[in-house]
């Protein structure tokens, strides 16, 4: 069971890494745009912080994506997971990279049919977008479940990476539904630590503890 942080904000990521509970980071062009930094600079910072698995997204046609992927692999080596779109060019590149031992994450997955093709192309991870599926009036968690079941039945070793997670409930239920990894924004990660009864219980224990001194 792995926890990834879905962010390009290095300040946020440093805090999360400090817990010792984080296994990797996923980024995308929108998250990178939000922090207003050059993607390569962000990846360099993550490398210096010791993050072992960083999803770095490539875009464009096959040739453009291949060029970007080669650059990222040569710069970042083992920490680089090439994040590819769920389309024909994305899966062609996925197959090529997988046959060369490169980790891949096929993103923008919305159903089990897409996940099946991505696994067939050798993807290390597939990313079903739980929140965006929910937004369409369907159950993102059911899609996670159907992909996990499908991989169990067919024997694919591709890992299910639940993405587009907006609440601790969706994060936890993703694992219940068979996700191997959940990538979550840092606020969701912090909310997972909290419960109102933990806080009030701790306050009372501190008050009682003081009576011994
Ligand atoms: C991560 O891999 C995805 O790009 C991300 O979780 C998408 O999240 P969003 O639907 O909140 O933009």
How would you characterize the overall build of this protein?
- This protein is α/β, with parallel strands linked by helices.
- Helices cover 53% and strands 17% of the residues.
- It has helices at 10-17, 29-35, 39-48, 62-76, 88-99, 112-120, 130-135, 140-154, 168-176, 186-191, 196-210, and strands at 2-6, 24-26, 54-57, 80-85, 104-109, 125-128, 159-162, 181-184.
- An eight-stranded parallel β-barrel has the order 1-2-3-4-5-6-7-8, surrounded by six helices.
- Helix 4 (62-76) links the parallel strand 3 (54-57) and strand 4 (80-85).
- Helix 6 (112-120) runs parallel beside helix 8 (140-154).
- It is globular, with a radius of gyration of 19 Å.
- The mean pLDDT is 98.
Which short descriptors sum up this protein?
binds erythose-4-phosphate; 8 strands; alpha/beta; eight-stranded parallel β-barrel; single chain
């Amino acid at each position: 069971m792995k926890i990834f942080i879905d962010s390009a904000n290095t300040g946020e990521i440093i805090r999360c890494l400090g817990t010792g509970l984080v296994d990797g980071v996923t980024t995308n062009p929108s998250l990178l745009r939000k922090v207003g930094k050059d993607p390569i600079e962000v990846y360099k910072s993550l490398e210096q912080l010791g993050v072992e698995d960083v999803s770095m997204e490539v875009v464009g046609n096959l040739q453009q994506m291949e060029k970007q992927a080669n650059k990222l692999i040569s710069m970042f080596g083992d920490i680089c997971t090439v994040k590819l779109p769920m389309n024909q060019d994305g899966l062609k590149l996925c197959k090529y990279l997988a046959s060369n031992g490169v980790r891949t994450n096929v993103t923008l997955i919305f159903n089990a049919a897409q996940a099946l093709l991505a696994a067939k192309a050798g993807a290390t991870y597939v990313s079903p977008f739980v929140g965006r599926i929910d937004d369409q009036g369907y159950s993102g968690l059911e899609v996670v479940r159907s992909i996990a079941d499908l991989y169990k039945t067919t024997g694919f070793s591709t890992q299910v990476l639940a993405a587009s997670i907006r609440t601790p409930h969706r994060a936890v239920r993703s694992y219940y539904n068979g996700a191997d990894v959940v990538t979550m924004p840092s606020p969701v990660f912090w909310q997972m630590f909290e419960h109102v009864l933990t806080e009030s219980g701790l306050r009372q224990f501190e008050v009682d503890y003081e009576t011994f001194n």
